[in-house]
Amino acid sequence: MTDVVVIGGGVGGMATAIRLAARGQRVQLFERRHELGGKLTEAHRDGFTFGLGPSLLTLPDLFGALAAEAGRKLDDLVTLTEVDPVCRYRFADGSVLDARGGPGEMAAQVERFSPGQGQAWQRYFEWAGRCWAASERAFLAGPLDLAGLARRQASLSDLFASAPGQTLAGLARRFFTDPRLVQYVCRYATYSGSSPYRAPAAVGCIPYLEHARGAWYVQGGLARLRDALARLLADLGVEVHTGATVSQVLTAGGRPARGLSTGRGARGRAGGVLVSGERVRADVVVCGADSARLYRDLCPSRPMRRRIGRIGPSSSGFLVLAGVRGRTSGLAHHNVIFSADYRAEFADIFGRRRPPADPTIYVGCPAAAGPVRRPARGREPDAAGQRPGREPSGLGPVRGGLPGTAAGQDDRGGRRRARPRAVH
User: Fold this and answer.
1) pLDDT by residue (tens digit) across 258-267?
2) Helices (H), 118-267
């Protein structure tokens, strides 16, 4: 039996600990905050419950497989429902596009929205499917070494499937002549806090996941998924330490443990960590903390710090948590209100490094959503699409609408409770 320390109690750290414990390893997990979940956390005030992280789940089959490794069924832990429309897009000219569930429905919706572009969307969706399949084989299913790529039967064609050297904006213009649909494709760069004029075209595979495998919501909020993972940790006997800050990753002979990096395991003869002055012995250390913190503080490495510094930070979002009185008509579960000039917006953010005068606004409001299409039972679950760095700007009831929005609410996945007991 191997002694493993996992640093970080976000979804990645929790999933890693579950997987290792299910395979018979002795696992300790250390989280510096006083609760697990990373971005899957909540705030409560005046009878309202707000999600502070993602509000959409894609690829729930990943979590289903994780639960199965622990001897449980995902359906017994959380209730998933499919969201339809996936998102409602509002453009500066007043037009609205509902991104409907299946690819056939979406192509028909695009054709009604912009005659002649339905087939273009179908071609784009087919490209996205090929890009996703290639990404799974070559990049997502294991280490990027020649032996691993050969085992997964990855090929040179997988590299070209992701349109290398092309930006997401360039990819969008390849398929669409309607500038609104180019803007729709470009928004997927914001999932990773990037500019579509710099982000690689491979980001454009995300619509394939949303329309081929579904976009899902966890009843009661995505924090219930956090709770489910915590139950699996307890079932498997993982020793969880919250409020425990790791100050150093111990290494053998002063040399960094071979292969240690964010989200990856590493062996070291004298491995382990220091937690609040206490030495914790480990054969394997898995770090789920931010790579900048890992190589700056926990396992200092000048070369890695220089590499990370050249990348620079991703952009963040400004989050308003609004408990709004009444209802707003025309509001879906997920809504994007586009700016009139997307290129100028991103030039402000990434070039001039200032808040844009006309920002795109995301409005997440499960309370306003219509009926879900069907429960996720029997369907493939999905992976969480997240945007980095959201900071709440305020909590509690807000009278009237928010300036600049038709929706009157701007929160990333906030779950409104009109009364403390009535969860929408």
Assistant:
1) 323 223 333 4
2) 118-135, 146-151, 156-161, 168-175, 179-186, 206-208, 223-235
Two structure tokens written together for 321:
């948590």
Span 178-193, average pLDDT? 94
Based on the domain organization, do 207 and 112 belong to the same domain?
Answer: yes
Structure tokens at 253: 């002979």
Rounded CA separation 422/417 (Å): 6
Using DSSP's 3-state secondary structure scheme, residue 42 falls into strand
pLDDT tens digits, residue range 233-276? 999 999 999 999 999 898 765 544 432 322 333 344 446 888 87
Encoded amino acid at 130, one letter = R
* CB of 283 closer than 8 Å to CB of 267: yes
**Neighbouring C-beta atoms of residue 136, cutoff 10 Å:** 14
Q: Compute the distance between CA of residue 185 and CA of residue 190 in angstroms, rounded to an integer.
A: 10
- Beta bridge pairs of residue 80: 218
**117 and 152 assigned to the same domain:** yes
Helices 118-135 and 168-175: crossing angle in degrees, nearest 10, is 140
Cα separation, 334 vs 82, in Å, equals 12
Q: What is the pTM of this model?
A: 0.79
Rounded CA separation 281/283 (Å): 7
Q: How far apart are CA 199 and CA 282, in angstroms?
A: 38
End-of-domain residue from the set 295, 311, 327: 311
Helix axes 118-135, 179-186, angle to 10 degrees: 20
Residue 269: which domain range?
Answer: 3-38+221-311
Choose the weakest-confidence range: 41-50, 124-133, 240-249, 311-320: 311-320
Length of the chain: 424
User: Would you say residue 44 lies in a domain?
Assistant: no
pLDDT of the residue at 12:
95
How distant, in Å, are the alpha carbons of 36, 219, 319 from that of 50? 17, 13, 11
Residue 259 pLDDT? 28
